[in-house]
Amino acid sequence: MVAGEGRKMKIEYIDLRSLVQLDACTRCGECTKWCPVYDAEGDEKLSPRGKNQLIKKFIRGRYGLFSSLFARKSFDAENIHQCTICGQCKFVCPVELDTPELWENIREAMVEENGVLEAHRPLLTSIKNYDNPWQQPRSARTRWAKKDKLVARDPTKEWVDVLYYVGCTASYDPVISKVAQLTYKILSLAGVNFGILGRDESCCGSTAKRVGELTLFRAQARKNLEIFNQTGAETILTSCAGCFKTIYQDYPRIGKLSPKVMHTIQWVATMLSEKELKINQIKKTITYHDPCHLGRHTGIYDAPRQILSMIGANLVEMDRHGEKSRCCGAGGGVSTAFPDLKSKLAMQRVKDAEETGAEILTTACPFCYQSLLGAVKDMGSKIKVMDLLELVWMSIGSLG
Ligand code: SF4
Ligand code: SF4
Fold first, then answer.
1. Which of the listed residues 35, 90, 97, 98 should we mutate to test ligand 1's pocket, taking the one with most ligand atoms within 8 A of CB?
2. pLDDT digits (tens, 9 = 90+) for 113-142
3. Most CB contacts within 10 A, which of 115, 161, 228, 240?
């Protein structure tokens, strides 16, 4: 038996809305046409429609009036986890089923019955023990700042307008930490009174939520809500699409969040249009990859495009962009549990980008950046992957 086979779920953890949604699926297959996982694997069981059918059969088999006839007592959890929670199926479903919410709810019900998927365990244990998924000590959380002798205020001791929530990946990953350094520099250049929590910053819990470990997610959310509210900051800024979606959309369902939450690119778009900074025009042909958590999940499509326009880039769109943007493959726990699937999705996205003829593929999420960069290397592609903040800094950094 492979890991994940023969798993069950606690039906009492499936909320009524999810049960109604499952029942409302007409099996039309529109979602299947757009699902990046189905596109990569061609397996109906992995399509949104196929997953719905599997779950329905399981529920009937275990709990229904005719359960002995249907007799499906368990199913392969990997089918449910081979999904990046990209949300594409929700956007094309004619009956408007909230499939990402459904998948997360089903994962929660499975975790309650069987525990987490083995491949996710180290990540989740690390969040519990170290407040980050990367098994790194809390004391190393500000290594990115120390390296460049950047000193930020401590919002638990000093008054700040903006709390910059760095996130685990930008804090610890030596490549992605440039995003944290650039955010720091751009905030400083704009004269913003900001601070970081340093070793008091805890993982937002996004990964735990996406893979169904809701107890851990709620614990992280409560811990963060308490400290965010205590600081008195008016705004929380984050440069990670996953942290942004989680804090902006999922936290208010857990408790009161006083500061407003913005992704860095929303703030940069406003700052560039309001401040009189000298802008060095970047005359490059650039394509923008919409991170699922920033685009479909939270509706931020315009701000990155406004920035690209303001810095003089020649934006060329991929066929699939905006609401139809193809997922890079990194979300929903797929990157950790199914790295080959992640690579297939990322390579397809790089092919989409290559077709535009762009020199640069830019995005605004560390997970997308890592995933796309890995695919570019694997494919030997000539396209250059850059975080949008790198382009912003190229444009304003030396001339500010
Ligand atoms: S598009 Fe919606 S209704 Fe049609 S198969 Fe997919 S989930 Fe079901
Ligand atoms: S959320 Fe994305 S990957 Fe998951 S089933 Fe829907 S379209 Fe496929």
1. 97
2. 888 999 999 999 999 999 999 999 999 999
3. 240
